[in-house]
Request: fold
Amino acid sequence: MGFTKVVYFTFAFIAILSSLLMVTRKNPIHSALWMILTFFSLAVIYLLYEAQFIAVAQVMVYAGAIMMLILFVIMLVNLEKGYGEGEESKSPLQKKKIAWLLVTTVFFVELLFCAVFFRMTGKTGDYTAEMVRSMGNAKTVGSLLYGKYLFPFEIASLMLLVGIVGAVVLTKKTK
Reply:
């Protein structure tokens, strides 16, 4: 097995493990830290696929900006106040565990079904690997992001803005 495969499988395992730890932690700050590790391991995988721009954007945008936004919202909303040591705060969560287990099982069965029965269509995109290498990774992604996909990009930024405004409204003290 070559060095590239060893690095790939190592960081794929780290990404899977850290994402599982992210969704199973009760403390939202710990979950956010595990999410950052997941983002970094995905950035290494992007580097292995020679997608340098996407790897740098993964670290800067997701691990940097989005995680700071999530941590900001967590601290602003103060999620810790709902997790007291009394039994009354734990009982609603215990009642929903079976439903969540069912939803998770259905989701993983769907993923397994897609993985087993996936077929390549043989269609290639407009940008072949040779074209991307000749133009440059950053130029190709930039022209697509700010050209063809400008509207979805702006919608995503508006959704992030709505999330920030919603967090501020939730924490606003009423007089």
Notes: The first helix runs from residue 3 to 24. The mean pLDDT is 81.
